[in-house]
């Protein structure tokens, strides 16, 4: 069984730039969720993808967008980066048919915006 | 709106002492609650879920609907319990959004 993987591990971008983060879900999992974890905070839900469509979104602006591919992997795109976007971005995979709350997390991508 | 509150950012206890990590929630309806743990340099992982009434690594958590609490307890702390602990509240219908608390860092002093 392959766990959730994320790339890259670390990333440094300049304010106003765009960034793409990638996630491969755990083998057999069809649902991917993205979270933002600012320093000293718990993970905050950004959105969730199922069947290649966004099916739920947290309180994040439209410049946060995503994709899910037929193999269930996913991308998180952030446009017009702001300093406050500096955070750890976590990807979590799960089974839609599984128990809500049982999610399997990747190691995260640390994004620094300067 | 659903909300999770963890009032302590840091909890320090001596090895062998009892541990109680506090969690309070706000949710309309009957919630399901979870505890996640993150050990140093490891990824966030599920520790236990209230519906299973399980004990994992000596930890238990009881849902108290009257006090809207889901405190995590262990009778005797061990050094390997040192980690960040997050209380989590998932939506029960529709998409699987999980609301996390701010987290409590447990430090077990040898």
Blueprint (SSEs and pairs):
The complex is a heterodimer of chains A (114) and B (110).
Chain A: E1 5-7, E2 10-13, E3 19-24, E4 31-37, E5 44-50, E6 53-57, E7 64-68, E8 74-78, E9 87-94, E10 104-105, E11 109-113
Parallel strand pairs in A: 2-11
Antiparallel strand pairs in A: 1-3, 3-8, 4-5, 4-9, 5-6, 7-8, 9-10, 9-11
Chain B: E1 3-5, E2 10-14, E3 19-21, E4 24-26, E5 34-38, E6 45-49, E7 60-61, E8 72-74, E9 83-90, E10 98-100, E11 104-109
Parallel strand pairs in B: 2-11
Antiparallel strand pairs in B: 1-4, 3-8, 5-6, 5-9, 7-8, 9-10, 9-11
Give an overview of the whole structure.
The complex is a heterodimer of chains A (114) and B (110). By secondary structure, chain A is an all-beta fold. Chain A is 0% helix and 50% strand. In chain A, the strands form 2 sheets. In chain A, strands 2, 4, 5, 6, 9, 10 and 11 form a 7-stranded mixed sheet that branches. A 4-stranded antiparallel sheet of chain A has the order 1-3-8-7, with no helix packed on it. By secondary structure, chain B is mainly beta. Chain B is built from no helices and 11 strands. In chain B, strand 5 and strand 6 (45-49) form a beta hairpin. The model of chain B has no long low-confidence stretch (mean pLDDT 92). Classes of the chains: A mainly beta (114), B mainly beta (110). At the A-B interface, strand 4, strand 5, strand 9 and strand 10 of A face strand 6, strand 9 and strand 10 of B.
Key traits:
heterodimer, A: 114 residues, mainly beta, seven-stranded mixed sheet, four-stranded antiparallel sheet, 11 strands, B: 110 residues, six-stranded mixed sheet, three-stranded antiparallel sheet, 0% helix
Distance between the termini of chain B: 41 Å
Radius of gyration of chain B: 13 Å
Task: State the total count of DSSP E strands of chain B.
Answer: 11
- What proportion strand of chain B? 35-45%
Quaternary structure state of the chains depicted: heterodimer
Rg of chain A over CA atoms, rounded to whole Å, is 13 Å
